[in-house]
Amino acid sequence: MIGTVARSAFYELLALPLAFTRVRTRLRVPRLLLREPVGAHDISLRRCLIQSVLSGGVGLLGWFLAMLSVLVLVRGFAYPLVAADSYQTSWGGPTLAGAWLVHAVSGALIAPAFVAVIALCGRLQLRVTRTVLGGDRSWWAIPVALVLVAAGGLFFVAWVRQI
User: Fold this and answer.
1) Residue 115 contacts by C-beta under 8 Å, 6 or more apart in sequence?
2) Total domains in the fold of the chain
3) 136 located within any domain
4) 81 part of a folded domain
């Protein structure tokens, strides 16, 4: 189970660079990494571009979530180094030990959730590749990928503006 989640998350992080590779490579990586066959069906330039845009967009979202999970862990476990000046009014305050504990525990709980979402995005990547390049009839994969890319873009803009 954990191995499948890790492979799916790794596939999601590979999706962004894979969006710029040859079709044969895009079809071979899921077979080797996830042990999931993806056959080619009616490959055209249009389908390749659609798969590149969708895969690249969802892959970019995966990298953003990976960055957030690392950030949550670092800020949680290294709390005294990054925000020790305001611990009296932060979660777990008014003591530094309480604030550090609350931030470390919340980081340790949130980071695996981000990794699980990254793994789910990896499974969506596989479904998008099968739908666009492999001729699978999963009609829902393309709209879900579009919604995820749009929501991820909005989330990124909101995150940048709150800093």
Assistant:
1) 5, 9, 69
2) 1
3) yes
4) no
